[in-house]
Amino acid sequence: MADKKSTNTNSGPPVWATWLLSSFSDPNTSEELQGDLLEMYDYWSAGLGKSKAKWKYIYAVFRLLRPLARKKDSENYQKTYGISPGMLKSYFKIGARNLLKNKGYSAINIFGLAIGVSACIVIYLLVSFELSYENFQPDKERIYRVTSGFQNSQGVRSQNAGLSAPMPEHIRKEITGLESLAACHVWNTNTTVAYTKNGKNPSKVWKNDQSQVLICEAEYFQIFKYEWLLGSAQSCLQAPNEVVLTQSEAEKYFGAIPLQQVLGKRLYFSDSLITTVSGIVKDLPSNSDFKFKNFISFKSIQTKAWRKEFQLDEWTNTNSSSMAFVKVANKVTASQIDKQFPAFLNKYLDTKDEWNKGRTLDLQPLSDIHYNQEIKDNFSRQVHLPSLYALMGIAVFLLLIAAINFINLATAQSINRIKEIGVRKVLGSSRKSLIIQFLCETFVITFAAVLLSLSFIEPILSAFEKFVPQEFSFSILDPKLLGFVALIAALTSLLSGLYPAWVISSYTPIASLKNQVSFGRNGGVLLRKSLITFQFVASQIFILGTIIMAAQSRFMLNKDLGFNKDAIIHFQTDWHDSEIDKKDILIQKLRQIPEIENVSIGTTPALRGYSTNRVSYHDGKNEIKLDVHRRAVDENYIPMFGLKLVAGRNITNSDTAKEFVINQTYAKMLGFKKPEDAIGKMLTYSGGKGDINLPIVGVVSDFHLQSLHTPIKPLYILSENKYENAINVKVRTGGNSGKELNNVIGKMEVAYKEVFTTGAVEFSPLFFNETVGKFYQKEQRLSQILNTATGVAILISCMGLFGLAAFVTRQRTKEIGIRKVLGSTASQILVLLSRDFLRLVVLSIFIASPIAYLLMKQWLQDFAYRVDISWWIFALAAGVSIVVAILTVGYQSLRAALLNPVESLKVE
Amino acid sequence: MKRTFLGEFEEVVLLTVAILDQQAYAVSVTQQLEEKTGRSVGFSAVHTTLQRMQEKGLLSSEMGGATMERGGRRKRFFSVTALGRKALQEVKHVRQQLWDALPEQTLRLMGG
């Protein structure tokens, strides 16, 4: 009573301070503190006055609040230890027992996690491999490639990995800030090894793959660090006709002889360049685009004939095989070098020549070569960085879905362990030790999942062989990989274990022992529902992506491209052979094969690359100058590919250009209202010897010149049979089974070999429809990855849903029994049980659809010709999801609904 | 067992608890201290010192019975443990030794 008076009247200490003290001071000393302070207040106010006493009181309260005041542990209880070796052992033991007790749930958990984790690991391996390219070069930040930039007549810029061959030596002299510069040529040629055996000189010819032979200056080895086994960077490649080999190449040529004996051996390149081996270097690691194995000294090609072959004196030609690498001096930036290039180009290039308009030189960092698809060269394999990022995103999502699964199942399952938790708490377990216990159990599961996933890596990699770059390799014992795996295991354990552990350990002992905690009544339900929704949103996005990609690829493969592509085989003849007769002989021979319907000269209508010429037309007032695609063909070409002439006539055979056929797009761009108007008009193009004026004799309707990524461009067709070495063969379409086609190809090969006896260019026939299919390799790869990801996402989500449905059904067994007794039909119960889950699936469809729509719209921007994202795609995806969910939940529900109520009610 | 060092404030508080005998609780200790030393003593400082010395085993405590004053809240009475007595003895002994070691002259100069 006295207390009430003193606190409630104004004369007492501030009420809020007392409240603070009672709420936030150490509970163990709270009571006596409050009393003591009240007494002190009276003492102070007697000695110092009310207001001072008040301030002293407040000050003391704050000093005594936790965490400012020291915490005093209660002495009345024995301390419990959450982390002691004995308890940890027991936690793991009980964790393992629980796993074995609930085999079904454990299997779902472990398997789901293992799939997510293995997807993560495989993607990590691939992505980290691709991102590690060239990172072993010690001065990688200082190494650049000098690339050329061009501008066409429409102002569109393009880049070339090479530069005009005379440039490097002038750059070396005139550009400051370079530590070293190396001019290089990638040379696609064969190598002949001469042996001396029993006094005779047999030889062996090796056909080199692309990007194996590099003609380079000695500075190449100062820029790029190689490990020298024999010779040194300083001494080698200084003289003409020297070659340095990599270890593997030396072994390939000479077998397993001591490396010392390889020095001084002779190699013939392209049958005419004689070289002597002067050094051997170790092969670079596999994460490098620099796969060159034969390094020929640059001085070897200084003779007149070689200079001509490699166009060493051509200022106007830029070939991507002819490159220059530089290492900039310390503390010099790329922009400092780039700034010097415009003046350099002005000095050496004829600025009046319109070809040189907009020409630039730029430094491309070494680290950019593997990723920049704008700058193509003929030795590196470029990867698409956004695809790598997309992959990483997919990995994260899959892992999240798997973790969510775990959370859902574990929290739902915890209901079965409530009694255990109650008993543990009564026996003195603190919340902390319970959380540790459940985290240990999670860790057991994660650990099992990670072990399982490690065994999945190999099969997954071999199943996806197509996506794995050839040079990719990995070792399970790689410390980086093990570190990543450990990180994933720890992260997954925490991510998926912390929440369930928190929930489980929060049950109060009394409630849990009285069995008053029930599933469905605590706040965890909302969370669980949102997690399931999230899972299905992710799956739904994957499904939508897959469907749209499939639709687009079907569209691309089946779209009428404006030409025939069936039963056509195309190949190249030997370009070394400039005698026109040989090609004609071959064509004659091919015509004699009965299965062959027609033969024509010319590159296929749609190509992977392109070649353009600048053609101008003078309509009386203005000159229209355009970069126009070209096809050099013969008179059989247009009928054979089924191209439609809309005006004029077909082209006639000729060895050199004498007339044009153009496409409708070009006719329109030249301003002709009707195609007929174009007939007889003159076009000017610059051939080898000055400008040539030639008439248009026909107009063909538009067909696709490239993949569907690009719109149809202007085109001219001419006949220049002398210079064209691509041949197309149309096979008679009877019942052309694969066997028959192979038979025809066999006959063609025989004919080819009879005509071209040197074998310098092998007969390599391709089916045109397959060639067109290959335009979309990138998309096919992406869609295959997405297909798999979708499958995995659906699988994991469904496993989670299945487990949860099983659990909920079991919880509600009695309810179902009572409902049945009161007259519910099986179908009513089925609906009752499935409704909750279906509601979530429907919600996730509504969330996922707009997200997927935006993402896929972005993806389709890449294509000039694309499918519409129409409503049926969403309907289909929604249908798939709902059906899958019904099947998953339905089985459990049906079983529960059909159960005899006697069975479900008799147990108490 | 390692020796327990007493801080100056700890020593004074411990002594005061001993002086107050059965009646030592935070408030009485604070007031006694202010009275005897004439300096202003923070209540919270006394409280935490008492708690700390209890943790160290120099003091033991028990709750008194409820009374009508201070809103019926009980008091926590402190008493000096054997260890606490030993610590006090030790401090006194050390002091005594130091005083004894003082040369006569100095002692006289100090007015002793």
From TrEMBL, chain A:
Keyword line: Cell membrane, Membrane, Transmembrane, Transmembrane helix
Domain of life: Bacteria
GO CC, any one term: plasma membrane
Regions that span the bilayer: 107-127, 388-412, 433-461, 481-504, 531-551, 785-809, 837-856, 871-891
Subcellular location per the Swiss-Prot or TrEMBL entry: Cell membrane
Membrane topology value: Multi-pass membrane protein
Span of domain MacB-like periplasmic core: 106-341, 565-734
Gene Ontology terms for molecular function: transmembrane transporter activity
Annotated ranges, domain ABC3 transporter permease C-terminal: 394-509, 789-900
Pfam family, one: MacB_PCD
Protein name: FtsX-like permease family protein
Organism lineage: Bacteria, Pseudomonadati, Bacteroidota, Cytophagia, Cytophagales
Automatic annotation (TrEMBL), chain B:
Source taxon at top rank: Bacteria
Pfam families in UniProt: PadR
Gene3D superfamilies: Winged helix-like DNA-binding domain superfamily/Winged helix DNA-binding domain (1.10.10.10)
Coiled coil: none
Domain Transcription regulator PadR N-terminal: 19-90
InterPro entries: Tscrpt_reg_PadR_N, WH-like_DNA-bd_sf, WH_DNA-bd_sf
Name this polypeptide is given: PadR family transcriptional regulator
